[in-house]
Amino acid sequence: MADSTGPLDRLFGAVDRVRGALTVSPRTVRNLKSEYRTSALSKVGVALILVVVFMAVFAPFIAPQNPTTQNLDNGRLPPLGFTQTEQQTQTQMVNGSIQTVNTTETVNATLAHPLGTNSLGQDMLARVIYGARTSLLVGLLGTSLAALLGVSVGLTAGYYRGRVDDTLMRFADVSLAFPSLVLAIALIGVWGRASVSVPDPFVVAGVVDPVRSALGLPTPMPDTFVLPGTVIVVVGLVNWVWFARVARGEALSIREEEFVKAARALGADDARVVLRHVLPNATTPILVLATIQVASIILLESSLSFLGFSGTTLSWGFDIAQGRAYLASAWWIATVPGLAIVLTVVGINLVGDWLRDALDPGIEGEGGM
Amino acid sequence: MSRDPTDAEPAGAPAGSPDDVLRVRNLTTRFFTEEGQVNAVEGVDFDVRDGEVFGIVGESGSGKSVTALSVIDLVESPGRITDGEVWYREPDLAAEFEDDVPAAVDGEFVDVRRLPEGVRRSLRGPSFSMIFQDPMSSLNPSVTVGEQIAEAVEVQRRASANPRRTRSRTQGYGLGRLLVDTLVPGRGYTSEASEARAVELLEQVGIPDPAERADEYPHQFSGGMLQRAMVAQALAGEPDVLIADEPTTALDVTIQAQILNLLRDLQAEQDTSVVMITHDLGVIARMCQRVGVMYAGQVVERGTLADVFDDPVHPYTEGLLGSIPDMDEPASRLEPIEGNVPSLLDSEMGERCYFADRCPKAMEDCLRPIPMYDAEGSDEHETRCVLAVEEYDEAAALPDGYFESEPDSASESGSADDPAAGEEVSTGD
């Protein structure tokens, strides 16, 4: 690693550094494996997350339809295995007299729309697949932002203690006192709903259409993906406090370790001690918290979309809001994205539990999140 | 373990010579806790000479470790060094600050405590370094052993590559650099030369296959090996003064002996001065030329090894020596010192000899602050005990239970009269 010659050496060097920074000791790996083997739930969690990640990454290839294509003739098609009977009351002129005729129309599911369509005739499966992108991106980016903010504040507070600690943590407590949804709505109200259009790399590269044509799927697919920028910032600002609290607690205990004293005795300054000696040893609980926070941020994003505060229309929460009006007549429009949220959040929480049990038995039973 | 002082390695400097590298005067460290002010270190004086091993011995809670941390300026809140001077002989440093901080400079000596914080930090590593008690927790578990030592080498390398004046600035390792180093592979803080030096140091402290072991993490090392790695790390900066705070306490006996031999060899080789802090008189006898005995935050007896071991004056020193087994004339029972170290709470510390309540020879004269007296033996033998200047007089002896019957006699300041305790007494009546 010392005389890095080829790019491969550099890559291994980088991997080694990350490994060192995350404190993945062989014991940790052993714990992860044994916990994974013995716990069926962790397997379920991993499987669920793999499915969601696969959907999000390869959405343009696997979506049966373009999720934004409207087809009003095909509105409210039921999912496969269900038939929809629609009663229509019509007033007709029959033989010179006005009659009310009740006609019952049976709508069958079609293979082209396996999970049915919404009121605009958009394919639900395609929307669920694309919605996974929004949820995961907001979840990951929001959590990263929250972690970056919270861990910085927490490490500073825990390392310096005293007045710095008091000031920062009182601020955190105040943030905690606001209900997160209300705070998020207030922030979006102030800043507006900015969204960023990100080009879909697969579509831009021109690999999507040939593959889809070969598979006999309709083209074209959306060439950009709308990232709800404000929402990401807002969920980050709402959820940083959890990271601050955990990082502070870790910093408070790690700073008392002898290797911190030793590092200072050898002339290390504060930044070096915190980043080199405190942070790497606090990664485990922060990682576990981050996993669980992804789930909670996905829920928050869905809530915001449901309430119409998101910047994108390709979101599970948005679809639930759309389906709410048709709950009695077309239950699947709200239920399908609802199930997607439930399964994703459950999957992430199961993985979080697995990580926690394997990495940090001490945290069990604490009301961490 | 022999107690013969001639067994100790001959020091570079003859006894009584003026070439001290460190002169600590009136060092006072207090902890401001919720229970009150704790006087952990109370006006400690000692000198450390070039190339010698100076021992500080005392019970747990006598202020040894806090003294060490105070010298190296690592006392943390709620503790604070409230008074004292740490004169360090370093002509370059003295020349540099002669004009800026004239009060801190006296000839070749510099009062480290009066230098700016950045300069004090830059002295840690190249000038003062420290070995800690518990090898298992003294190395960062998430960084390889080799890298941690290489970092210590690098600090020293960069410091000596730059002129003194810019030391504190250039040696600093800023946030930006750290982020870049972490994210960009192949751009570490440590150079290859430092990494090679780290392997050399590991070999020097007797770790087999040093090149491979350098790439391992601390949890792959045994306790003794970790302590060797700690020693290597502390020596990486080639410090003038190495403070070893109970370096062998957490190790088993055979490893203890190895580490002590290693320390002594390295110390003789590099001509480093060592401050050896321990509660183990065997370690002192084996390693040190001169000794200070600490009790309740004060140095109560000080002198050459022979003075303290063969000719102790202070009953506490006698008690310490009496509580180790003698293999030549085994006594049927060991003689422990009765009682415990005092709490060191300021409100409970009376104006008297702090050892008087446990002392078998306490007299009325002990009920006042005791200065350092010259004692018999070498010129350097001093003790904080009236027995150095007067004979024990049974007529003046304090009666048994003197301190129990007057529990409040110590807290004359009255600031912390515990109302709850008073109540308890009254209900007891």
From TrEMBL, chain A:
The chain crosses the membrane at residues 40-63, 136-159, 171-192, 225-243, 286-309, 329-351. It is a multi-pass membrane protein. Residues 132-352 form the ABC transmembrane type-1 domain. One of its GO terms (biological process) is transmembrane transport. Belongs to the binding-protein-dependent transport system permease family. The keyword Transferase does not apply. GO terms for cellular component: plasma membrane. PROSITE patterns: ABC_TM1. Pfam families: BPD_transp_1 (PF00528), OppC_N (PF12911). This is Binding-protein-dependent transporters inner membrane component. SUPFAM superfamilies: MetI-like. It comes from Candidatus Halobonum tyrrellensis G22. PANTHER family: D,D-DIPEPTIDE TRANSPORT SYSTEM PERMEASE PROTEIN DDPC-RELATED, OLIGOPEPTIDE TRANSPORT SYSTEM PERMEASE PROTEIN APPC. InterPro entries: BP-dependent_transpt_permease, MetI-like, MetI-like_sf, OppC_N.
Automatic annotation (TrEMBL), chain B:
The keyword Lipid metabolism does not apply. Residues 1-20, 398-429 are annotated as: Disordered. It holds the Pfam family oligo_HPY. It is found in: Cell membrane. It is a peripheral membrane protein. SUPFAM superfamilies: P-loop containing nucleoside triphosphate hydrolases. One of its GO terms (molecular function) is ATP hydrolysis activity. Its main location: membrane. It is an enzyme of class 7 (translocase). One of its GO terms (biological process) is peptide transport. SMART domains: AAA. Its EC number is 7.2.2.11. Coiled coil: none annotated. Keywords: ATP-binding, Cell membrane, Ion transport, Membrane, Nucleotide-binding, Translocase, Transport. It catalyses: Ni(2+)(out) + ATP + H2O = Ni(2+)(in) + ADP + phosphate + H(+). One of its GO terms (cellular component) is plasma membrane. Residues 22-321 form the ABC transporter domain. It comes from the Archaea. The complex is composed of two ATP-binding proteins (NikD and NikE), two transmembrane proteins (NikB and NikC) and a solute-binding protein (NikA). This is Nickel import system ATP-binding protein NikD. It comes from Candidatus Halobonum tyrrellensis G22. The lineage of its organism: Archaea, Methanobacteriati, Methanobacteriota, Stenosarchaea group, Halobacteria.
